[in-house]
Amino acid sequence: MASKNILSDIGLLCNKLREDLFVPASKKFFPILQKYIKEAGNGYLTESGPTWIDFFFAEEFDSMNHLSPGFYETYPEFKELNSKIHSLPQLQEYLKTRPQSAL
């Protein structure tokens, strides 16, 4: 019985953190990232093409999509960035053989 209460408490805490921290931060910062992607005009965050920051955010966006269904529908630019990074020919072998994470 105690573990059910702990799991329930953890779930409540996660929901509270999401509402108190993640949602306000995403409303503040995600439009900035969307702006950079739109201004670059190529689906990446910079005009010069993919950089390390595109790889970083592609993985972060993928995690957010798994944790928050509908994420990519809300932020289609982020889905496009993720797709562009994951479709790079140089990454195909790695993506097929990499270990899968819980996120």
Automatic annotation (TrEMBL):
<feature type="domain" description="GST C-terminal">
    <location>
        <begin position="1"/>
        <end position="103"/>
    </location>
</feature>
<dbReference type="GO" id="GO:0004364">
    <property type="term" value="F:glutathione transferase activity"/>
</dbReference>
<dbReference type="InterPro" id="IPR004046">
    <property type="entry name" value="GST_C"/>
</dbReference>
<dbReference type="InterPro" id="IPR036282">
    <property type="entry name" value="Glutathione-S-Trfase_C_sf"/>
</dbReference>
<dbReference type="Pfam" id="PF14497">
    <property type="entry name" value="GST_C_3"/>
</dbReference>
<keyword id="KW-0808">Transferase</keyword>
<protein>
    <recommendedName>
        <fullName>glutathione transferase</fullName>
        <ecNumber>2.5.1.18</ecNumber>
    </recommendedName>
</protein>
<dbReference type="GO" id="GO:0006749">
    <property type="term" value="P:glutathione metabolic process"/>
</dbReference>
<dbReference type="InterPro" id="IPR050213">
    <property type="entry name" value="GST_superfamily"/>
</dbReference>
<dbReference type="InterPro" id="IPR010987">
    <property type="entry name" value="Glutathione-S-Trfase_C-like"/>
</dbReference>
